[in-house]
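Final report, Chapter 2: Outcomes

The project's central promise was a pipeline that accepts a single protein chain and returns its three-dimensional structure in a standardized token representation, suitable for archiving and comparison. That pipeline is now operational. To close this chapter, we reproduce one record exactly as it appears in the project archive, with the input sequence first and the structure output second.
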Amino acid sequence: MAAFWLAAAPLAHAADWIVSGNDGKYQRVQGRDTYLANPPADTLTVLDASVFPPKVVRSVEVENAVQGPPQAVAISPDGKLALVSAPTRYDQANKQLLMDTFLQVVDLSGADAAVSKIELGSHPQAVAFSPNGKLGVVACVDGSVRVLNIEGRTVKLAGSINLSSKRLSGASFTHDGQHVLVSLRDEQGVAVLNVQGEQIVDSGDRLSAGVAPYTIDVSSDGHWAVVSNVGLAGLPGYKGRILADADTVSLIDVSKAPFKTVQHITVPSVPESVAISPNGQWIAVQGIDGSNMTPDNPGYHARGKVVLFQIDKGVARKVSEAPAGAASQGLVFTQDSQHLIAQFNVERQLAFYDIKHGKLVDTGKRLPLSGGPSSIRSTPR
């Protein structure tokens, strides 16, 4: 698979690696799903955020989709390996979206990226690397977590953990690499898994969350995890009109076992993504806030919101907000906790924000992409 170099940046130097998965075939128009007749390829964009705005290092053709939580990509601690899930294709003849059941492994170590596939038997959603890069997890729609063993650039399917008979969504390792948090999208709550050497097992512990828990992020200080709860819009086949009312984000104390949910935070509707700064000080939420709806819906807004919260003495409080894009997707902090990268899906852009004097500031700088950005993650921190 060809890789296109867009900036000279060898993978050996100290960098803040971030990957963005981009859906080339899908386009939301006035709140409705459409698919382009002659779309560009889905892609994985590799960014170095050790400078700001980040530099694009390369772009690789993959299969990726906007459907599902925006954590369907991951990059290894050394930046030499990426995982890409949520593979889909659109059948134009039958007007049908086809969901594939494989995980893509992208070897970024050479001048030309190589893409291989691992069959999982279920459509994969969130993916994550362990902090040491030796394990990976894949949350699937059949309610199971696939466990990956990783040695160098070799990735092998090592087992499966059945957590539910319904869909899973987000997944993240804790900072110490001893646990994995997995959101139970349709059954509610968060499952806690334990890492035992090269194996991962279900601890049996479940944590409280809001309706339809979705994305999960953890802080590098080892204290916090956050979960976005996308509400009624995230439940399967929900009947009735949804009006963009408030949803929640859950704050979890992971500093000691057993973990405990300590706060549910009110946020704009459909918090598609939540991110916690590596230093554990800031929580950022990208709320769609009705921007995914048709203009005749009473809850419609042309743009969503990025909302910033500060954690002070164990309590998160809102300090700032700024406009986002339409039906925006993923969100990630840079390593220094001073900047945010937001995926503007409809606009096919990455947007860049600063945190200055405790306030969220839209820099106005945008990075255009060939597809709508749909998933984003940094290396484990």
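Archive annotation: The chain has one domain: 3-378.
This record, like all others produced under the grant, will remain available to the consortium after the project formally closes.
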